[in-house]
Specification:
By secondary structure, this protein is of the alpha+beta class. It has a single domain (4-225), classed as NADH Oxidase, CATH 3.40.109.40. 37% of the residues lie in helices and 20% in strands. The protein contains nine helices and ten strands. Strands 1, 2, 3, 4, 5, 6, 7 and 10 form an eight-stranded antiparallel sheet that branches. A two-stranded antiparallel ribbon has the order 8-9. Helix 2 packs across helix 5. The longest helix has 23 residues, at 107-129. It is globular and about 60 Å long. It starts with a strand and ends with a helix. The structure holds iron/sulfur cluster (SF4).
């Protein structure tokens, strides 16, 4: 199955939430500047997602082979124990916003522009995930991202890119030799069907992470994912 590109997301930045995240006081001069940046980004921004349906061909102890490509992760292997299909994806804020953000040279404004790009990318990912039932026939899903856990290092991004084909031509995302994505506000991952809640954060001990969405469960790896 060929990959699809999704780029028609509605892009509205919730000023209240963004101001709170960036500690900007509503009504202040800073709020006026940030609001104008949001307005520009909403006009220019075109976040994108590239995704496809892929099928699991082999399951090892700490890897799966998906459409001929080996993905090495014990956690992924266990998480897809009952699955036969997956949805690999790459999402990005888009080259339009990447270019827009380069116009800001002030340190604080660059920081805000990064936050705006992150917001746009997240909106696209959330909108994309809400279509997984209709578009891919997956109703209850969880996501794993290469680089989030030691178990599935960032170098595995090269395999996700191979699975998708040519994300550079399709959505303008390139992978560097050190496996970082450009634009930097891009994310790759695999959505998989699951009947139990799963989040990378449950296995990640990092403290005070602003992106944490689930508490660290220090027993989970040992009870569920250690090799027999
Ligand atoms: S706690 Fe933070 S770094 Fe760790 S998996 Fe969650 S979002 Fe990623």
């Amino acid at each position: 199955m060929t990959a699809h590109v999704y780029d028609q997301f509605s892009v509205n930045i919730d000023r209240g939430k963004l101001f709170e995240q960036l500690h900007v006081v509503a009504g202040s001069d800073d709020a006026g500047v940030l609001d104008e940046m949001c307005r520009e980004a909403e006009q220019i921004g075109r976040p994108k997602v590239m995704a496809r349906t892929s099928y699991i061909e082999e399951k090892g102890t700490d890897f799966v082979v998906v459409d001929g490509i080996r993905l090495s992760s014990r956690v992924l292997r266990v998480n897809v124990d009952r699955a036969y299909k997956l949805v690999p994806y790459v999402a990005t804020c888009g080259l339009e916003l990447e270019q827009w953000s380069k116009g800001y040279t002030d340190f604080l404004e660059q920081y805000w522009a990064d936050a705006v790009k992150q917001w746009m990318m997240r909106q696209a990912v959330n909108a994309f995930r809400s279509t997984l039932g209709d578009e891919f026939g997956l109703t209850q899903t969880a996501t794993m991202n290469p680089g989030s856990l030691e178990d599935w290092p960032i170098s595995e991004q090269q395999h996700l890119f191979k699975l998708l084909g040519d994300p550079e031509s399709a959505i303008g995302v390139t992978l560097t030799d050190s496996f970082l994505m450009i634009p930097s506000k891009s994310v790759s991952g695999i959505c998989f069907p699951t009947e139990v809640n799963y989040s990378n954060c449950q296995l990640c001990p990092r403290e005070e992470c602003p992106g944490r969405i689930a508490p660290y469960d220090h027993e989970l790896y040992e009870t569920k994912y250690t090799l027999p």
